[in-house]
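Quick start: read one record
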Amino acid sequence: MIYDVIIVWAGAAGLFSGICLNKNLKKLILEKTAKPWTKVLMSGWERANVSNADIEPTRDYFTQNKKFLFSIFSNYTNWDTMSFFTENWVEIVEEDRNRLILKSWDSKELLTCLLKNIQKNNCELKINQDIKNISKNKDLLFEIVNSSEEKYFSKNVIIASWWKSFPQVWTTGEGYNIAKSFWIEVVNPYRTLCGMATKRDLSEISWVSVNLQMQLFDRKNEKKAIYSENWPLLFTHFWVSWPIVHNLSNAIWEYLNLLKIDEIDFEKYILENLFLSLKFDLEKTPKRILKFFELSSQKNLINLDLQNWRSWKEAKATWWGISTNELDNHMQAKRVSWLYFIWEVVDVTGKTWGFNLQWAWSSAFVASKNINEKFIK
């Protein structure tokens, strides 16, 4: 049997691709696990941050080529996402920092909506399909072989796999290997959207949070902050965490990349040069923090030296991946016609609070739209 489109992995982007493809196309989603929706259910601490009401691609996403983002997000916006869920009777509300979240606070509602729509769109889904190899045969069809040596053939393939981080949900980075097998450049992936380890022992204020102003500085140029944000920050034993720090972990990656620091020297550079400047509102700061940092009316700002990112196990995302320079404006590989890479496997990472799921919807829609147009022609 020959399919028009095979989608590899059934995360948010894979399922949405199955929804956006033309109903008359013969399409199949191959999912590695028995529960393809694990990560969808975890979104927004199981509340599902479906998007954000205030998106500026160059401000809210981190990638080597930010110009690439404009055509993707202009083709499918956060308001298109809102319309889709509204039309499917899923209520979305806007909460803090413009995140768009399910009114029900239950990510199962999001999953139910996606699964119902792939069925409605005549999209087949097969689970427990661990992909062993993908190649193009002499008939220019993609040949997909699973670990049981079963073969599937398709005219188009959309790789919608997850990134390497957060291995608890079986994210092992297979999409990178598929890209490499077609000689597509993969920029060495590294962990991000995670806490940052500190030099200082913070045990005395562990698990205490406070709303503050955070700025990132480099000792080689302390006149201008590299990154700044106001948001609650959580102190733990030897690291700082919460969304403000998760976004910071992305900003550090982007900064080191701009400096062209070799990956081997990342930790050394962070240890020797990068530090946080934390400014506290004394009236709203817990007493334990006031005492620990010896804060007073004459001292409401402290510096905190950084050490490294936290582990792959804790990272919610991966920085770098398949280079956007390898893809056209339709998410199609420039080297291999009719092969598409979308969402997490690509070198694009958004801030936390709905931005990464919007990347899922937008990249999936753009790839699917291009396939639809080719078949219409």
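DSSP finds eleven helices and 20 strands in the chain.
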